[in-house]
């Protein structure tokens, strides 16, 4: 897959340091690839991080037609950047997309995009203990029409966020609750898919 790269004209001078929080800061760039039924996946590009222009009728807003993943890149003590089981995440995302009725994508192409984005923004991978570059691939339906139909337009994107722990206090004080009345997943449902509402 050919990936066009447009570098940010206003890059962040210094990656953030100190407490990072989770998913609140973003790198200079993001990956975007478009889908339409006649052409399939096309126009793969890494561009400056920016809002996505979407029609108000886009299926993602009205039917939750979207899937996502979450994975991390870590900086080793030697300064190298490593991803943790990224192909497993891409395969799970393929399964989720199939379940929701979104267009199929090539996991190898997604891996290529992921690696290219991490390589371009590698200076944002933090080195402190308990930190990582959180990567969020997502696939959304952008069909500009209401009503149930086969998805014919979509966007596949990857954004990246230098992050600390998901929980402000770290992992130690996390409390859990056992639910006895409501369920998230039922047989034949979407519980295994990482999608809107799950």
Topology overview:
Blueprint: E1 4-5, E2 29-36, E3 40-48, H1 59-63, E4 66-68, E5 71-75, E6 81-83, H2 86-100, H3 107-120, E7 132-141, E8 153-163
Parallel strand pairs: 1-3
Antiparallel strand pairs: 2-3, 2-8, 4-7, 5-6, 5-7, 7-8
What fraction, in percent, of the residue positions are helical? 10-25%
Would you state the CATH class?
A: Alpha Beta
* Total individual domains: 1
CATH superfamily: Aminotransferase class 4, branched-chain amino acid transferase, N-terminal domain
Radius of gyration: 18 Å
Number of DSSP helical runs: 3
Report the portion of residues in β strands: 25-35%
Q: Can you tell me the CATH architecture? A: 2-Layer Sandwich
Order of helices and strands: EEEHEEEHHEE
CATH topology: D-amino Acid Aminotransferase, Chain A, domain 1
Total strands: the figure is 8
Q: Would you identify the regions where 5 or more consecutive residues have pLDDT less than 50?
A: none
Shape: globular
Sheet having the most strands: 8 strands, mixed
* Terminal-residue CA separation: 31 Å
Summing up helix and strand content along with how strands pair, one would put the structural category as alpha+beta
Average pLDDT, all residues:
90
Protein name: Aminotransferase class IV
Family: Belongs to the class-IV pyridoxal-phosphate-dependent aminotransferase family.
Keywords: Aminotransferase, Pyridoxal phosphate, Transferase
GO molecular function, one term: branched-chain-amino-acid transaminase activity
Question: Main attributes?
Answer:
198 residues; alpha+beta; D-amino Acid Aminotransferase, Chain A, domain 1; 8-stranded mixed beta sheet; 8 strands; 26% strand
């Amino acid at each position: 897959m050919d990936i066009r790269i447009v570098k940010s004209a206003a890059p962040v001078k210094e990656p953030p340091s100190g407490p990072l929080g989770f998913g609140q800061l973003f790198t200079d760039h993001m990956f975007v690839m478009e889908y339409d039924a006649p052409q399939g996946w096309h126009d793969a590009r890494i561009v400056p991080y920016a809002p996505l222009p979407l029609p108000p009728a886009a299926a993602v807003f009205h039917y939750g037609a979207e899937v996502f993943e979450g994975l991390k890149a870590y900086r080793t003590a030697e300064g190298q950047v490593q991803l943790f089981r990224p192909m497993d995440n891409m395969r799970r995302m393929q399964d989720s997309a199939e379940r929701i009725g979104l267009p199929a994508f090539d996991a190898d192409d997604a891996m290529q995009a992921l690696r290219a984005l991490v390589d371009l923004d590698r200076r944002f991978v933090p080195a402190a203990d308990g930190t990582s570059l959180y990567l969020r691939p997502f696939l959304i339906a952008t069909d500009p029409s209401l009503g149930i139909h086969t998805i014919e337009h979509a966007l596949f994107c990857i954004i990246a966020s230098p992050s600390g722990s998901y929980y402000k206090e770290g992992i130690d004080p996390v409390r859990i609750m056992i639910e006895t009345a409501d369920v998230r997943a039922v047989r034949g449902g979407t519980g295994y898919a990482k999608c809107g509402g799950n």
